[in-house]
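User: quick one
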Amino acid sequence: AQKVTQAQTEISVVEKEDVTLDCVYETRDTTYYLFWYKQPPSGELVFLIRRNSFDEQNEISGRYSWNFQKSTSSFNFTITASQVVDSAVYFCALSEALNYGGSQGNLIFGKGTKLSVKP
Amino acid sequence: DGGITQSPKYLFRKEGQNVTLSCEQNLNHDAMYWYRQDPGQGLRLIYYSQIVNDFQKGDIAEGYSVSREKKESFPLTVTSAQKNPTAFYLCATRYGGGPPGELFFGEGSRLTVL
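Assistant: Done. Structure below.
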């Protein structure tokens, strides 16, 4: 069965600190997709990144970077030099590629990590 | 503007009443989803629809109903059978073709049962 675990419920850092949000997943599929979303206080989830299971290259986008390791089933997210605007709830999600009973493309979300960045 | 519109943003309901949450999109996406979010619980899938006039139950469909008569619209009714309806409800869409793409979310509707 698919499962996404975000063990860190809440993290608090001071501005300019680096912070890593952990994500561990479980899936029976060999082809799957991993996502990170940001939910600011306004409530709307914002897409950050999608990674497929065949691409283990790390990715960097500005202050954001992602580390995908299939050997440990992890897809961790690091924010470098955090800012107050990074305060939000961050969700990791998993989607299998194959069509199981019509559920193709459905995302399974972790419970989220609430990040507070203090000035 | 292109996007997803959920209404109302805030809704109060008395116990025993049905309430319908609206979700409209002009992204021309095929798939639409309803998620429920509770504090510390992440997002749980209620219903989803891949095409017009077809929809499937998600993980927590009991006490909810939906319809998909138009591509643009996917309303969710929270019925009196839903035992704990107070929650934040999020509608999302996804382009139907190709590998699983990202979901696009509305701003949510917060339902409080008094």
